Amino acid sequence: MDAPVLSVKSLSVAFGSHTAVRDLSFDIRSGETLALVGESGSGKSATALSVLRLIEREGGRISQGEIWLGSKQAVDLARLSDREMQVYRGNRISMIFQEPMTSLNPVMRIGEQLGEVLRRHQGLSRAAARTAAEQALARVRVPDPGRRLEQYPHELSGGLRQRVMIAIALACRPDVLIADEPTTALDVTTQAEVLKLLKNLQKEIGMAILFITHDMGAVGEIADRVVVMRHGNTEEVASTRALFKAPQSSYARDLMRATPRLGHSPLRPQVPLVEPVLKVEGLSKSFARSDGFLRPKVRVPAVNNVSLDIRPGETLGLVGESGCGKSTLSRALMRLIEPDAGRVILAGRELTGLCPRRLQEARANVQMVFQDPFASLNPRMRVRDLITEPAFLHKGISGKERTEMAENLLEKVTLDPAAADRYPHQFSGGQRQRLCLARALSVSPKVIIADEAVSALDVSTAARVTRLMQEIQERDGIAFLFISHDIAVIERISHRVAVMFRGEIVETGETAQVLHAPRHEYTQRLLASVPRPLPHAVSFEDIPEPVQFAQPSARAVRDQHYTAA
Predict the structure, then answer these.
(1) Which one of 441, 452, 494, 523 has the fewest beta carbons within 10 angstroms of its own beta carbon?
(2) Contact between residue 297 and residue 288 where contact means Cβ atoms under 8 Å apart
(3) What is residue 278's three-state secondary structure?
């Protein structure tokens, strides 16, 4: 058997007096993929940052252990200085981070960022680095790579930005690639393409991959072996096939049970056929875009003639790839952006056309929960003020009444009322998302729009949050528009599903009809791309390449199963 290219021995990592990783050991060989899985706070990212020796920049330290890189003339990275690490970091060992937009320099062109790596580690001239950068983008199948070199990160989609990050990480053909949640924020088709790309590049370069994720579906698609972590401890080490077939630790079994799997969620009973609380009729929104300085602007449609409705106590799941118009639609519904055409009728009152004062009054009936709870909460405000702020603005409550409301809201979302005096940074990601839900509930809305509200959470935390949403819905009769790229989660929580493609609804109907008997070719492709948490159940060759579908003509969304003509 070949010697490991990366060998971690008895690694412990501490932040002050807190031990984040405790006595962790694993080996990875060339061409092998090892997955680190576990909930938030399990020590996965701390392990990755320690291997790259970036942990010190985050306030942590390696308290014990060894990190050997290389199968021949191996070097212990744990003993190197930061200056010595510069020879290895980005050259022999590289990393892809979860959010490419925060990892890429927003004021540097893509070509400059790729070229910087090549010039620093391979000593290439500026011209040679540019040629190599274009080849690197072509290798990760970025279309029109020459033009992309001149673009800035904000001009690329999420999937393309992630491909650029992969190109940068692999520019020097490293021995080890660390991929830290590289597909978590991506839609299912882009996720499938990125996983396929990593696997193919691994075969080409022969590198080892340390794949960090909480997505067991992705683990089943790409990993050879798995290390299950919890609170910094190693719970289980097994081959992927053995883990999925018969997990030995109770924690691994809990993790598997919490993983949403398409076709394994009980269907929710349909709500009574009553008057919809939210009706959208022919909603459209476009944006002006220019391809260059002094060139005329053109209108690009983001939402085109969308119609849908949601009844009280019902959840409508909205799915589609990145850039299909889901978030634009949600913001247009609340008039956070002004629609170009169409009507939005909330609780019998038309929102489109209302003056600002009347609109603010009407917004008490529709609230939004965003993807990133930390960015949604003011870090300088205490929880009691944060979660009751909408009620203060809409209803003018203050003093003792506000304090009592904060305690009641915290109980509603299963948090300790004594936490009202704490700040957002003192809560976990799942707890912060519950604070956002409590904040939305403070004005007793009739509709809550959840825009990717659980996509950044680990599977068990996401399961708890979605279960809480269902309990609140059943108790208070709130309607949810649940926007997500995770179709298995959509199946778990939705009564009906609407599929969006290029700004239009192409298929809608009851959850079982749409997800298990899809009629539209785009829905079929979307479902074919869903990762199955069973190792090698679908080969990478079976995942279809991106195809272009004809632009559909929209039809109104009703209770039956409809597809675009």
Answers:
(1) 452
(2) yes
(3) strand
pLDDT at 291: 60
Query: What pTM did the predictor assign?
Result: 0.78
DSSP 511: H
Under DSSP, is residue 351 helix (H, G, I), strand (E, B) or coil? Answer: coil
Residue 134 pLDDT exceeds 80: yes
Residues sharing a CB contact under 8 Å with residue 257, sequence separation 6 or more, in sequence order: none
CATH number of 278-563: 3.40.50.300
549, 496, 260, 34: CA torsion to nearest 10: 20
pLDDT for 130: 93
Whether 559 has a pLDDT exceeding 70, the answer reads: no
The residue among 391, 458, 403, 401 whose CA lies nearest residue 431 is 458
Give me 396's structure tokens.
């003018």
The string of pLDDT tens digits covering residues 433-469 is: 889 999 999 999 999 999 888 877 788 888 888 999 9
Strands 33-37 and 61-69: unpaired
Angle between helices 383-395 and 429-441 (to 10 degrees): 20
Q: State how far Cα 386 lies from the chain centre.
A: 25
Question: Which residue stretches of 312-428 are H helix?
Answer: 326-333, 356-362, 373-376, 383-395, 399-412
Strand ranges (DSSP E) for 290-407? Answer: 298-310, 315-319, 341-346, 349-350, 366-369
Three-state DSSP state, 271: coil
Q: With the CA atoms of 199, 202, 207 and 211 taken in that order, what torsion angle do they form, in degrees rounded to the nearest 10?
A: -20
Closest CA to 369 of 243, 217, 482: 482
Give per-residue pLDDT as tens, 232-241.
Answer: 999 999 999 9
Per the CB < 8 A criterion, the answer to whether 555 and 565 are in contact is yes
Phi, psi of 479 (to 5 degrees): -90, 140
Query: Where does 6-254 sit in CATH, by number?
Result: 3.40.50.300
Per-residue pLDDT, 534 = 54
Listed by start position, the domains of the chain span 6-254, 278-563
- Residue 179 phi/psi, 5-degree rounding, is -115, 105
Q: Which of 35-44, 389-398, 455-464 is the least confident region?
A: 455-464
Q: What percent of the chain has pLDDT over 70?
A: 93
Q: What is the pLDDT of residue 330?
A: 92
Q: Which residues contact 181 (CB under 8 A, 6 or more apart)?
A: 97, 98, 212, 213, 214
First to last CA, the chain: 57
Say what the alpha-carbon torsion angle 262, 266, 267, 268 is, to the nearest 10 degrees. Answer: -130
Q: How far apart are CA 133 and CA 113, in angstroms?
A: 9
Residue 367 to residue 26: CA distance in whole angstroms: 46
Question: What letters, b where the CB count within 10 A reaches 16 and e where it falls short, cover 474-483?
Answer: eeeebbbbbb
Q: What is the pLDDT of residue 537?
A: 41
- Residues belonging to the chain: 565
Q: Is the per-residue pLDDT at 549 higher than 50? A: no
